Amino acid sequence: MQPVERHSFAPDASFDGGDLDCGNGLLLLIRQHMDPLPRGGLLEFRSTEISVEADFPAWCRMTGNELVSWTKRDNLRSFLVCKGALADRRERQSAARPATVLGLDVVPVRIPRTLPPPAPVPAIPALAVMGVGSWPRPRWMLQAIHDHMEGRLSDADFRATADDATRLAVQPQLRAGVDVVTDGEQRRDNYASFVGGRLDNCRLIPLTDLLPLVDHPEEFEREMRSLDVPAAEVRHPAVFGPLGRSRPLARDEFEIVRAITECPVKIALPGPYLLTRMMWMECIADRAYGSREHLARDVVRVLREEIHDLLAAGVALVQLDEPVLSEVVFTGAKNMRSFMCGALSEKGDSQTELEFARTLINQVVAGLPRARLGLHVCRGNWTPDERVALAGDYRPLLGLLSSVDVGTLFLELATPRAGAMEILADLPDDRRIGVGVVNQKRREVETVEEVVAHGRRAMGILGKDRVLLTPDCGFATFADNPVASPQIAEAKLRVIVDAAERLRKP
Predict the structure, then answer these.
(1) Residue 424 to residues 260, 264, 307, 361, 427: CA-CA distances in angstroms?
(2) Which of 108, 114, 354, 470 is deepest in the core (most CB within 10 A)?
(3) How far is CA 123 from CA 95, 307, 338, 370, 456, in A?
(4) Contacting residues for 246 by C-beta, under 8 A, at least 6 apart
């Protein structure tokens, strides 16, 4: 497209991108200004960087946004882009209003001086049954998630919609007879990056916006497609200032479940190592932090604030999700940055990374009751295709699993990719194991006899008092990509409950 003398349409929003290029933060600012616009809204930005002439049209084609026109006067360029297609644009009064310049002020971080103590809750018994976290979302909930992220749905309307979806996720768990319930992570776009949309000075942006930051964007995009991960729809946290937690991350999730049932509630949160790996990206996070270790200190702080708040509210169990630990030990020197959309940044050798992860986890849970803390590790849950997920037994992770200060380890153990269960005999006796006894990736529902046999094997290795029973992982890791239907998920939980009843008998 050739430059024009002047734009034919008035923008709905505008900003000055200065000399930033697309790989150095400009796309983050574009997304920040574009998201609040309705489909068909027009954004104008100015740039003095010559490379934007070629890179920005390519981004528009990749993301499905239409470059309407651009101008050039001396060294100053102005780009007018439509959110979606210009043909979608409707006649609106706002089109005649003068351009709006959105503020980019960094939100001030507020650090609480004291944290609330945990509230008492009933102990979770041996052989208790529970899900790992996520539950398939209704189609209307998926639409609400996207509308809310892009500014078309208010916070109040989104919360009402998510509460309805949560009721639909909790009822099947109660019908199945689980001992501990989750909210199904209904209001999350995915199991981990949702945090980026709730922390101060952090923003969720589509993975396509991050392609200029990776070494081989075409190869990265092909890999995402091969893993059934829609890069244009999955969003990733980007840090543009010091992290703060001025509002809760998961308190809404607990409150609606508590209004439905008196059963103990588990809330899953992304672990500190996973969040640090997700958020540390060169040319973005390094504007606020000098290193990923510097960033990790604030990740630890906001997670500690959140866990204290959840336990004080009456959450029975907080689970930290760290699936990317498998990427550390099972990929060697290969940098599989797309794994679970949680490993976009570079990593060091496996021992260095495991020690970093162990330190961060123990800093987060320091001083908290271990019986109400858990850690979940799996080998990938982005697709039902077992062939593309990571494989390997728990041997390289035993050191970390033995030294983190949590009371329960929720481990993937139903799939053959997890290796021999006997390896877990070396774990300390004070660790309970949430044993994965059904594979959430399989359409076939396991029989009660199969689950009983798996449970007895675990009891023989670990002792009956140390065993809890779960699926291998959640049933819907990505909002747009569930790995099971609600009907299959409920049937699998029912099988675990029936098996637990047999296993509890003398």
Answers:
(1) 36, 27, 27, 20, 5
(2) 470
(3) 59, 18, 38, 12, 22
(4) 107, 109, 110, 200
Residues 6+ apart with CB under 8 A from 132: 182, 268, 319, 376, 410, 434, 440, 470, 471, 472, 473, 474
CA distance 100 to 85: 21
Contact 398, 431 (CB under 8 A): no
Q: In what order do the strands lie in the sheet with 432-438?
A: 266-270, 317-321, 373-377, 408-411, 432-438, 467-471
Total structural domains in the chain? 2
CA-closest candidate to residue 273, choices 240, 248, 300: 300
Three-state SS sequence of 159-177:
HHHHHHHHHHHHHHHHHHC
Token pair belonging to 21: 């290029």
What domain range is 24 assigned to? 13-87
Task: Return the pLDDT at 225.
Answer: 60
**DSSP letter assigned to residue 464:** G
**Count of other CB atoms within 10 angstroms of residue 93:** 6
* CATH number of the domain encompassing residue 29: 3.30.110.40
283: helix, strand or coil = coil
pTM, whole model, 2 decimals? 0.83
SS3 238: strand
Whether the CB-CB separation of 488 and 496 falls below 8 Å is answered with: no
Q: Establish if 127 belongs to a structural domain.
A: no
d(CA 503, CA 498): 9
Residue 20 in any domain: the answer is yes
Question: How far is the C-alpha of 430 from the C-alpha of 432, rounded, in Å?
Answer: 7
**Among 55-64, 68-77, 96-105, 365-374, which is the least confidently predicted range?**
96-105
Task: Return phi, psi of residue 218, to 5°.
Answer: -65, -45
More confident position, 69 or 37: 69
Q: Position of tokens 């290795």? A: 461
What b/e sequence results for 332-345 when a residue is b if at least 16 CB atoms lie within 10 Å of its CB, and e otherwise? eeebbbbbbbbbbb
- Spell out the residues 6+ positions from residue 390 whose beta carbon is closer than 8 angstroms to its own: 326, 327, 330, 331, 339, 379, 380, 417
Helices and strands of the chain, counted as H and E runs: 13, 12
Higher pLDDT, 315 or 37: 315
Give yes or no for residue 214 having a pLDDT over 70.
no
Given a contact cutoff of 8 angstroms between Cβ atoms, the answer to whether 15 and 101 are in contact is yes
